[in-house]
Design brief:
Alpha-Beta Plaits; 7-stranded mixed β-sheet; about 50% helix; elongated
Length: about 725
């Protein structure tokens, strides 16, 4: 099974995207296709029997054009459209002045007076409208092509309206030229309506396009994060090369202020790195030899050399971009309603317009009045607003999630996340850091705390015990100066012994006190044990000079995350394979009431399934690899991830900075996104419910009517309302 994202040209409304999607899904070899109107993309899953050329042929057959495979690069923006629109805007004003000067009591151009010189007036408007017909050729081409493919869209409605108005006006002009009732036919010229409708449609699409670009800003920022050049170390000589020239295993250089070019591992130097673009965290992280660096992160100080590991499409940022783009190309459940309505919308509007035309004629109204109402109905209807309601909100929200260090893999998850009833946390590596750290120090010596730790580390660095790693890590972060040791001895099951500065130093567990017959009664022991610590005793010349608590400490973000979730009304459960005593200590510190401990991975999965069988929607938060079965079984699986195993992660959501506070943020974004989509759909439906009856003329007895020009303007405003409402999601802030 293969998957590709194609860039599509020629889509103007939801009927376009819906028609293309249906056509693609009918093709043999296409497993599943999803078309995104906002991003102008088609996500296609297909089997081995098809090629990219076949898929592009299908797109062409459906009436659209494939612009090739999505490569993540931002397309160049042209200033030409702006200048063209300004020119036609001026020409539109000329058309309106010529046609409406008399009506508006403005000075009339003498030789274009419609009553005195009807031929001049008619021919001038005809000549002025021709450039607009050329300007709108793409609309007519799309409209007719989609009508022939039995997938009529908004362009079809506009084309029918403009052609009806134009050909009726052309007939009237011919009658004027033949001098047959010129005074009657001169008042039935609607060339200006053709011109203004096309202009408003083009203006609306221009504004719409510019607005939609704003919805994609977060994605574009991700794409532009990585630099185009890299500094290669070649035989101790610095050489600037393009990203495409970098190969795996190359040694690259990064100096203060520069961006890391590709994913790699530091082989020399130390620095503080700003990874906010990928983690959402503003606090720089310290990096040294052996640490991984991610393409696009900024080196704030120092100097590093790093070995290239993942380049091009394999880089972390490329994976993130493609995951986010794929997510925006999936369909949210609520979008099904809009898709169903959009599928019937355009044919229904054409039918209503025809019935309006026939109805006016049967009731004895003039043909000119009937044709104007026909055109107005076609032009005022807006399938765009319906089609944009869901995908616009999804694109903006996916971008907000990405900025917050959240990768949501599909829009269904984004829509449903806030509906979860229970949030289940794994303990080790999720609520806790997953590696031993020094949590508390009781110092009874003349040494400072850092000096005491340095003394212990001087012994511990000679072993590979997990506890030793906690001390070495602490000393490295603090840049502590270690002492030379002699007579080092590993006391099996007890601890370590060595001579430091001519003093005998021992570090170990309580058994070492019994071995040396050292009697001690310290209340601090109980305090450390109560918090679930492993206690390290530090002895100098047979005297206890310090107690150090070492444990797998709770993440800084865990307590706030749990508190926020509980305030949201979510039940929080800890699910762990650790012993009950340790689990309860951690749970108590986080105010988690329900703990399920001593469970194997299979039992974790069963627990999740049992909760779901009770009718609850369950979010499981755990390690992306170790907890894979549980994550897959949950309604929504969320994994904490360092950002380097994104492609292999099987969860629905990845927190790439391990910040658990992002979970309530996800729920908040989800809730606001669904609310925004519902608002968009309401305004889209409300607009059509209000405008179509006015266009038909049902409110004329109340003095409320509409002509085609105002219909085109109203349609533009409708789409713009949905776009602007969706853009509000960019301002979501964490509480």
């Amino acid at each position: 099974m293969k998957k590709v994202i194609l860039k599509i040209d020629g889509m103007s409304c939801s009927a376009c995207s819906s028609g293309l999607e249906k056509y693609l899904n009918k093709q043999k070899g296409v497993v599943k296709a999803s078309v995104n109107l906002v991003l102008a993309q088609a996500l296609i899953e297909y089997d081995e029997s098809l090629t990219i050329a076949d898929l592009e042929r299908f797109v062409s057959e459906a009436g659209f054009e494939s612009l090739g495979i999505f490569d993540g690069k931002e397309e160049k923006k042209s200033q030409r459209k702006t200048k063209t629109l300004i020119a036609f805007g001026i020409l539109a004003c000329v058309v309106l002045y010529v046609s409406m000067a008399d009506m508006l009591h403005l000075p009339v151009i003498p030789f274009l007076d419609m009553m005195k010189y009807p031929v001049n007036y008619a021919v001038t408007l005809f000549v002025l409208v021709i450039p607009f017909l050329v300007f709108g050729f793409d609309i007519f081409k799309s409209g007719i092509k989609n009508l022939l493919h039995k997938t009529p869209n908004m362009d079809t409605l506009v084309s029918l309206g403009v052609f009806a108005s134009f050909f009726y006006s052309l007939f009237s002009m011919i009658m004027i030229l033949l001098n047959k009732r010129p005074m009657f036919y001169v008042e039935n010229l609607y060339f200006e309506s053709c011109a203004i409708i096309i202009f408003f449609i083009k203006l609306g699409r221009y504004i719409d396009g510019r607005s939609k670009e704003k919805t994609k800003e977060a994605l574009q920022e991700l794409v532009q994060i990585t630099p185009s050049m890299a500094l290669l170390k070649d035989k101790n000589v610095e050489k600037e090369v393009t990203i495409d020239e970098v190969k795996k295993k190359d040694i690259l250089i990064c100096k203060a202020g520069m961006k890391v070019a590709v994913d790699g591992v530091i082989v020399k130097g130390e620095t503080h790195v700003d990874e906010a673009f990928i983690t959402g965290e503003s606090i720089p992280s310290k990096k040294g030899k052996g640490d991984k660096v991610v393409a696009g992160s900024i080196v704030l100080d120092g100097y590093i050399e790093y070995e290239a590991e993942r380049i091009g499409k394999d880089s972390t940022i490329s994976e993130i971009v493609h995951l986010v783009v794929e997510a925006t190309n999936t369909k949210a459940p609520i979008q099904r309603l809009a898709d169903i309505v959009s599928g019937y919308f355009v044919p229904s509007i054409i039918l209503i317009a025809v019935l309006t035309l026939v109805g006016y004629l049967l009731l004895g109204h003039p043909f000119s009045e009937a044709i104007i109402s026909f055109v107005t109905v076609l032009v005022v209807a807006c399938p765009c607003a319906l089609g944009l309601a869901t995908p616009l909100a999804i694109v903006v929200s996916e971008g907000s999630c990405a900025k917050n260090g959240l990768l949501v893999k599909n829009s269904t998850t984004l829509e449903n996340a806030h509906k979860v009833d229970v949030v289940v946390f794994d303990k080790t590596g999720t609520l806790t850091y997953g590696n031993l750290k020094i949590s508390k120090i009781f110092n009874y010596s003349k040494y400072s705390d850092d000096e005491l730790i340095a003394l212990v580390t001087s012994l511990e660095k000679n072993t590979t015990h997990p506890i030793a790693k906690a001390f070495v890590s602490y000393a490295t972060d603090k840049k502590l100066k270690l002492s030379d040791v002699s007579d080092f001895e590993n006391l099996s099951g007890l601890g370590l012994r060595a001579t430091v500065n001519k003093k005998e130093i021992l570090v170990g567990n309580r058994k070492i006190l019994n071995k040396l017959k050292i009697k001690v009664d310290l209340q601090d022991e109980e305090a450390l044990a109560k918090d679930g610590n492993s206690i390290i005793y530090v002895i100098e010349n047979k005297k206890v000079i310090g107690l150090i608590g070492v444990n797998d400490i709770v993440r800084d973000s865990a307590k706030k995350a749990v508190s926020r979730l509980q305030k949201m009304g979510k039940e929080v459960i800890m699910l762990t394979g650790d012993n009950e005593k340790t689990a309860n200590i951690i749970a108590s510190s986080l105010n988690i009431k329900k703990v399920i401990a001593n469970v194997l991975p299979k039992e974790k999965t069963k627990t999740i399934k049992d909760l779901i069988s009770e009718g609850k929607k369950v979010m499981m938060v755990g390690d992306g690899i170790n907890d894979a079965p549980s994550l897959a079984s949950a309604t929504i699986g969320v994994s904490v991830n360092s950002g380097t195993d994104i492609a292999a992660d099987s969860s629905d959501v990845i927190i790439i900075n391990d910040n658990l506070e992002k979970i309530p943020t996800l729920l908040s974004i989800s809730r606001k996104t669904l609310r925004n989509i519902k608002q968009n759909l309401f305004w889209a439906f409300f607009y059509n419910v209000c405008m179509i009856p006015i266009a038909i003329g049902l409110l004329k007895p109340l003095g409320i009517s509409m002509n085609p020009m105002f219909g085109g303007l109203a349609m533009t405003i409708s789409s713009l309302t949905v776009v602007l409402n969706s853009l509000r999601l960019r301002n979501i802030k964490e509480k």
